[in-house]
Amino acid sequence: MEGTVKCAANYVPLTPISFLERSAVVYRERVSVVYGSVRFTWGETRERCVRLASALSVLGVSRGDVVAALAPNIPAMYELHFGVPMAGAVLCALNIRLDSAMVSVLLRHSEAKVIFVDYQFIGIAKGAFDILSAKGFKLPTLILIAECDPKQLSITSSTFSSSAIGSLEYESFLETGKLDFQIVRPKDEWDPIALNYTSGTTSSPKGVVYSHRGAYLNSLSTVLLNGMGLTPVYLWTLPMFHCNGWCFTWGVAAQGGTSICLRAVSAKTVFDNIVEHHMTHMCGAPTVLNTLINASVEERKPLPETFGPGTVCTWKPEWNSLPREEQAKIKSRQGVHHSGMEEVDVKDPITMKSVPADAKTIGEVMFRGNPVMSGYLKNLKATKEAFEGGWFRTGDLAVKHADNYMELKDRSKDIIISGGRKH
């Protein structure tokens, strides 16, 4: 239209790099990555990614070059999702379940200039290098990722020998990078950011190219689809090498969230991390969900059993004029059920009568509606107990205020059990 102009003031190519840049400012001191005893803030993560991009540039990596990675869900793998594109390069995250022969095929096909390899997969990488060498192909530069959790060093110290296939190590490599490095942003949002290979179950593996624009939009779509609010806590049970973790690698950054990294998934580690870090989101393939369902009694931890949050403290405009202290008290309440939940109430667990709305009488929070679980797999007895009286008994104890907003007070573990009944 007349009078409009496309320029640097109103048009910038979309890229997930901007998510990291913003979170490093807004959430600078907030924890971005957790891995065992290792913690990084968003400020530190940005600095590490800038150093990574700078070091790659010094190594000769430039716009459009492919950088491969063979690593599980560890901090380095998360940083590669930003550091590689910040160097203008394309990240090729390889499936850690591949054998040496297939890795050699993908390295050759992608023409990767560099490959980052976690110590656990050095054997696979060495086998791939042997195959490539035998065929006369040029080998990519290998950078070894050692264990970064000090508590695991005794386990990993004798697992690998970096001198066997290379002398570069990840943390040392980062130290060669400069913080004043000029980040390489895409000239066009159609520029590639990632290369992912299909499994090749019906034919040879195909390389799937992601653009900066596609990654940016899909990351935001993933956040919206999964109801990710600000500062979520995401547990990495989904492999980051799988479609770049469904773009959660970048999506979590968009919301200033915290990534809880897991080298390996087991029922115990999942339950422990959910409880310890107050996790808000995770993605579970059927195998992961079956692992949790079939966990031993010792491994399990008590968790909420509705599909998601069942209540919300819906704010009312008239509360805006109240003193801040009073607003804080109201905001701390769990409130009322959301639109998808049919009904919520605070009841006497024996008589099943609603407790009076006097903000004093304690009862058990109970739900009724479609978001409530279908039941406990292969445990009909526990399912019937949870649904006794036609309500899902949460085990949470609460009071109701005069406006029927509820406020949690305790858990039913502290209720006296007499004759099989809760008191």
TrEMBL record:
Belongs to the ATP-dependent AMP-binding enzyme family. GO terms for molecular function: ligase activity. Pfam families: AMP-binding. GO terms for biological process: fatty acid metabolic process. This is AMP-dependent synthetase/ligase domain-containing protein. Keywords: Fatty acid metabolism, Ligase, Lipid metabolism. It comes from the Eukaryota. It comes from Kalanchoe fedtschenkoi. Transmembrane segments: none annotated. Residues 20-298 form the AMP-dependent synthetase/ligase domain.
